[in-house]
């Protein structure tokens, strides 16, 4: 709640002249809730009409890297790493682009989390990744034309459009207003 109150205040007060620094928006909630909140915050801030603030947005949600292709002004950066076998060396260098790797268990190890916990976390991670990979393979069989990540973006856009449609009072629309709304919605799902 405290984090959300801080985010709410930032979003109310930020302008195109602001520098906003946000770290791990959406933590402390379910994965999909957190991702949805973080995603919506990025969209809001990057929208020049609503906010347009210069922003540093640190996140562990890999899905948000897609927004670089979707939103004007969004750029991905990550920490350069070097992998040696099972060891990871953080090079303390910022490089352009997102990452498809997560190093949370490595960070736990570096932070001094007991070796038994790190070992068990790695076992659980491998198990979850196997389940995720199997789930993705099944999804690909159902729809071979959908590339990784596109389905989530498409479903997100449809949910956004459904929300907009719910807000429309059909009794107050003129035919030309209805046509204009339809054109805008069609452009949004492209």
Question: In terms of topology, how is this protein built?
Answer:
Elements: H1 2-13, E1 19-23, H2 31-46, E2 54-58, H3 67-70, E3 77-84, E4 87-96, H4 104-110, H5 115-142, H6 150-167, H7 175-188
Parallel strand pairs: 1-2
Antiparallel strand pairs: 3-4
Adjacency order of strands in the biggest sheet? 1-2
Please indicate the percent range of residues in DSSP E strands (runs of 2 or more): 5-15%
- The chain-level mean pLDDT equals 83
Task: Give the structural class.
Answer: alpha+beta
> Got a strand count?
4
Quaternary form: single chain
Number of domains: 3
The ordered string of helix (H) and strand (E) elements is: HEHEHEEHHHH
C-alpha-based Rg, rounded: 20 Å
Helix content: 40-55%
Question: How many distinct helices?
Answer: 7
Mass-distribution shape: elongated
Note poorly predicted spans.
none
Distance between the termini: 35 Å
Largest β-sheet summary: 2 strands, parallel
What would your notes on this structure say?
The chain has helices at residues 2-13, 31-46, 67-70, 104-110, 115-142, 150-167, 175-188, and strands at 19-23, 54-58, 77-84, 87-96. Strand 3 (77-84) and strand 4 form a beta hairpin. Helix 4 runs antiparallel to helix 5. Helix content is 52%, strand content 15%. The chain has a two-stranded parallel ribbon with strand order 1-2. The chain has a two-stranded antiparallel sheet with strand order 3-4. The longest helix has 28 residues, at 115-142. It has 7 helices and 4 strands; from the N terminus they run H-E-H-E-H-E-E-H-H-H-H. It has 3 domains: 2-75, no CATH class; 103-142; 150-188, no CATH class. With 190 residues, it is α+β, with helices and mostly antiparallel strands. The chain is elongated and about 65 Å long. The two termini are 35 Å apart. The mean pLDDT is 83.
């Amino acid at each position: 709640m405290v984090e959300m109150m801080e985010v709410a205040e930032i979003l109310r007060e930020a302008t195109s002249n602001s520098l906003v620094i946000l770290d791990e928006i959406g933590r402390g909630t379910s994965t999909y809730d957190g991702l949805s909140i973080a995603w919506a915050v990025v969209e809001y801030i990057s929208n020049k009409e609503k906010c347009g603030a210069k922003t540093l947005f640190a996140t562990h949600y890999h899905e948000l890297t897609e927004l670089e292709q979707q939103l004007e002004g969004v750029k991905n950066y990550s920490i350069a790493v070097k992998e040696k076998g099972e060891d990871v060396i953080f090079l303390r260098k910022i490089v352009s682009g997102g990452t498809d790797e997560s190093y949370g268990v490595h960070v736990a190890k570096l932070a001094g989390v007991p070796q038994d916990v790190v070992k068990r976390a790695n076992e659980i991670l491998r198990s979850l990744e196997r389940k995720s990979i199997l789930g993705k393979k099944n999804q690909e069989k159902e729809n071979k034309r959908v590339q990784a990540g596109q389905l989530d973006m498409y479903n997100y856009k449809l949910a956004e459009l459904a929300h907009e449609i719910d807000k429309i009072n059909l009794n107050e629309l003129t035919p030309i207003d209805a046509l204009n709304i339809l054109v805008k919605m069609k452009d949004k799902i492209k």
